[in-house]
Each structure stands twice: as C-alpha cells, then as structure tokens.
C-alpha cells in the first residue's frame, strides 16, 4: 500500500514528467505546477486523515485512500485537459494523505514493541515505489508505442487496486478504546497543543525542509564539479538503494538503543554527508555523501514518527501522525524553494548543500532537548508496563 499510495502516487510523476511534457506540449511551469498540486493535495488532506481515522476507523480511511489513488491513476491514463490533470493530481495527493498516516498508525498500535521496525519496513515502501516506478517506466514504456506514458499510469492503477484489495483482506482494525467521545475530542486538541508533540513537529519540519535538497541538487552539483551525467545518475540510484535499506535498519537499531540517540546519529551523518563534498568535490567525496545521505535520510522519517507515537496515547496516534506530517509536508514545500533562490543568487549546488547542513544541524540541536521521560507509558492486559526507548 505504501508503494502504491506514496511511492507511485507522489513520486512516479517525476519519472513520467518528461514523457507527459512532450506529449501534452506542457512548458516547465505547467509541469512543475502539476508536481506542486500533488504536494498541495497531500498537505491539505493530511490533517483530516487522522481525524477521519478516529471517527470512521483506520482501515476504512486507508481503503478510501487506496481507491482514490487507483481512480486517479486511471483518469491520468485517459485524460487530455491540463485543468483536469490539475484536479486529478490534487486527488492523487489527497488519496496518498488518506492512506499514509492511518496505515502507519494501524500497524504501530498492533506492534507496540517493534514500532521502529514496523515503521522502517513500511517507509522503505516509499523508496521501493520510487525505484519500481523508474524501472517500470524505463523497461516497459517501449512496449507501448501508442499509449506510452498512459500505459504506465494504467499499470500503476492495476497494481494499486490489487494492493488495496489485498490490504482489505489482510489489515485488521485495532480494538476500540474505552475512552468516550468527549475525552477523545479533548485529547486530540491537547495533543495538538502539547509541547512534546510540537517539538517533534518542528524537528520534522526541519527534516522536511532539508532532506530534498541533496536529492534534488546532488546531480547538478556533481555535473557542475566536472563529473559526467552518467556517473551522477548512477550515484543517485545508489543513494536510492541505501534509502530503502536505511528505514528498516534504523528502525531495528532505535528499538534497541532508543529514538533520540538514533536520531542524533542519523542527523550527524546527514551533516557529514553535506560537509564532505562542500570541502572537497572529488568523486570519492560524492560517493561518500550519496551513501551517508541515502542511508541516513532513509531513517529520519522512521525515527521522528516513532518518537511522536511514543509521546501519544494509542487512540491519538492517527491524529498525531497526521499533525506532524503537516509539518513535514510544509517543509518539503519551503526547503527546495529557498534552496533554489540560494542557487540562483549565490552560485550553485555548494551553497544549497551549506543551507541543508545548517538545517540538519539545527534539527540535531533541537533533538538534544527531547527528553526520554516525555514518553507515554502504557499499561496492557498482559503486562504492568510497556517499556519504550527514548
């Protein structure tokens, strides 16, 4: 479900954009506007996803997101109007938001002792979706000389409906909490005003602002430094593979040693990944940077979400994850825009990397103020207390 509703729904357009742009005679402004519309749909619906999950159940909202993404893919296969594409892309981002937070919430509630591992495996689906969308487009589009990119969206639609139906069979709604409706409504408001959650949300905003900068500008930085486009593209793929591996590994590690310690190390590695090519733009520096960034970025979302989950009651998890996801999505809009301005007025990728280093370091400093005793300690029927890592 994460592969289809996030990997395909939010990132496949980047691979298919050149084909769509040529066929539909779109300029770069229009092509970029479609990408922005996906993010706007995700950002607009993210705060509602958690509240809807509390009201109607997590599984129902996940299914709604899956079907909405499926229908969006289908319409992308047959439409010709740019205005209609704008609307479809918004619903594609909205469907992604409906599925994203509730599916994380549903599984971390059911696997209390392995939150990090569960989130790591789920979020590796984002990188897997990006990798698969690239492979499917590269190797299958040649077999559809008439339909071309439209056939790829149709393949994504078929895949998405299969994943959604399978999820309907496999996923189980957690047991209902005994908390009454009024207490839940007060609890949601309290969660949004809680300084512990707000601090995690600010950290997530900073990560969202910084992590796309090396992803977007790594290739141009390398080419500007005299490295060939082929080598730059290969390093981008290597970074993507390490992103997929990073999620589960950081999740397992954080289950053992704690979220705070793991997040501090991951952010420190991101700072190092930015400093190395800034100091020396040799190919070896870029290889080290790609590995460090890929591996660390793959764990940042896992660690922050697990940290937020441990600071909220189980029935508030969907609302809390939806809330911090707003911070993350806002950062995704702000960071690359500011980096683009810096490049335009100050010179190149090196300056953008310095900007990313500053943001990652700020997030690291803020993480130092997170306290382990902030965690909510739960009681269950089988144990007197459930220990969590800080």
Automatic annotation (TrEMBL):
It is found in: Cell membrane. The lineage of its organism: Bacteria, Bacillati, Bacillota, Bacilli, Bacillales. GO terms for molecular function: transmembrane transporter activity. Residues 1-375 form the Major facilitator superfamily (MFS) profile domain. It is a multi-pass membrane protein. The chain crosses the membrane at residues 33-54, 61-78, 84-109, 116-139, 151-171, 202-223, 235-253, 262-279, 285-304, 316-340, 352-370. It comes from the Bacteria. This is MFS transporter. Pfam families: MFS_4. InterPro entries: MFS_4, MFS_dom, MFS_trans_sf. One of its GO terms (cellular component) is plasma membrane. It comes from Metabacillus arenae. Keywords: Membrane, Transmembrane, Transmembrane helix, Transport. SUPFAM superfamilies: MFS general substrate transporter. The keyword Kinase does not apply.
């Amino acid at each position: 479900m994460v592969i289809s509703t996030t990997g395909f729904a939010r990132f496949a357009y980047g691979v298919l954009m050149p084909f769509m742009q040529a066929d539909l005679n779109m300029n770069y402004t229009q092509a970029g506007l479609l990408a922005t519309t996906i993010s706007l749909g995700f950002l607009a619906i993210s705060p509602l996803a958690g509240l809807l999950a509390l009201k109607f159940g997590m599984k129902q909202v996940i299914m709604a997101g899956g079907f909405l993404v499926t229908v969006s893919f289908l319409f992308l296969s047959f439409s010709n109007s740019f205005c209609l594409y704008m609307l479809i892309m918004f619903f594609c981002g909205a469907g992604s938001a409906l599925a994203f937070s509730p599916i994380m919430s549903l599984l971390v509630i059911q696997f209390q002792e392995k939150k990090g591992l569960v989130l790591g495996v789920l979020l590796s689906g984002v990188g897997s979706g990006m990798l698969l969308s690239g492979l499917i487009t590269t190797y299958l589009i040649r077999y559809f000389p008439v339909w071309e990119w439209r056939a790829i969206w149709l393949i994504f639609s078929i895949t998405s409906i299969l994943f959604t139906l399978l999820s309907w069979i496999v996923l189980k709604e957690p047991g209902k909490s005994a908390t009454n409706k009024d207490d839940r409504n007060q609890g949601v408001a309290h969660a949004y005003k809680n300084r512990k959650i707000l601090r995690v949300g600010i950290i997530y905003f900073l990560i969202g602002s910084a992590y796309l900068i090396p992803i977007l500008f790594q290739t141009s930085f390398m080419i500007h430094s005299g490295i060939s486009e082929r080598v730059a593209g290969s390093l981008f793929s290597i970074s993507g593979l390490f992103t997929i591996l990073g999620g589960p590994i950081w999740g397992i590690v954080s289950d053992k040693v704690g979220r705070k310690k793991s997040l501090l190390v991951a952010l420190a590695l991101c700072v190092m990944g930015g400093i190395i090519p800034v100091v020396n733009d040799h190919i070896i520096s870029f290889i080290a940077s790609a590995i460090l960034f890929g591996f660390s970025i793959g764990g940042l979302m896992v660690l922050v979400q697990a940290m937020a989950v441990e600071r909220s009651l189980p029935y508030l998890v969907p609302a809390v994850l939806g809330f911090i996801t707003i911070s993350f999505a806002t950062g995704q809009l702000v960071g690359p825009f500011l980096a683009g301005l810096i490049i335009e007025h100050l010179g190149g990728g090196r300056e953008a990397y310095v900007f990313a280093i500053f943001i990652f370091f700020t997030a690291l400093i803020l993480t130092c103020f997170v306290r382990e005793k902030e965690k909510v300690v739960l009681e269950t029927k089988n144990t007197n207390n459930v220990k969590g890592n800080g």
